[in-house]
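Private note to self, pasted from the team thread so I don't lose it. Backbone tokens:
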């Protein structure tokens, strides 16, 4: 019995149509993947201005913050890699500096006393500076607690200890030690 006797299209036509459907599906998938890649590359540039959430920093205008921000290193070393400073998106928080691509390192000066700073809080001394470490999801924020202003340094877990040591050196050199306030 011939294919045309049943009213069905010939096998050659069915195979050709199936191949075209598969080719079309592959073409749509490739287009979607390349379109997604183009959209990802159109995302904000990791080296472009960094938008930061505003946090209360009522003492950011104090001379200690001005002194510190003007003295921080231009680049920070993290795991042997140099991290360049990042431009902050407007409106940039006062007395704030950031370094690095992706998950940046962010220094903020003039914050309120962290409520976690109690007489029983575990402090760490790094290069003569007392810090209170608060771990977050994927990062830690370290607070300088023995100067006349509170300073926060947020560091991604992948960063290593170089940035904390460099900022400790700057704080120790530029801001006098003050008794802790609880």
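Design output:
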């Amino acid at each position: 019995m011939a294919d045309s006797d049943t009213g069905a299209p010939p096998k050659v036509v069915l195979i050709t149509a199936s191949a075209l459907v598969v080719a079309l599906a592959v073409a749509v998938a490739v287009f979607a993947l390349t379109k997604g890649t183009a959209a990802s590359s159109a995302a904000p540039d990791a080296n472009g201005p960094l938008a930061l959430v505003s946090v209360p920093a009522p003492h950011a205008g104090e001379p200690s913050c001005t002194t510190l921000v003007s003295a921080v290193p231009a680049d920070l070393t993290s795991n042997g890699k140099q991290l360049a400073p990042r431009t902050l998106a407007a409106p940039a928080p006062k007395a704030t500096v950031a370094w690095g691509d992706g998950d940046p390192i962010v220094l903020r000066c003039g914050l309120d006393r962290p409520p976690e700073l109690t007489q029983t809080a575990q402090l760490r001394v790094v290069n003569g500076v007392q810090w209170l470490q608060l771990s977050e999801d994927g990062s830690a924020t370290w607070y300088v607690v023995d100067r006349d202003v509170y300073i926060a340094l947020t560091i991604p877990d992948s960063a290593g200890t170089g940035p904390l040591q460099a900022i400790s050196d700057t704080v120790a050199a530029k801001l006098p030690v003050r008794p802790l306030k609880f």
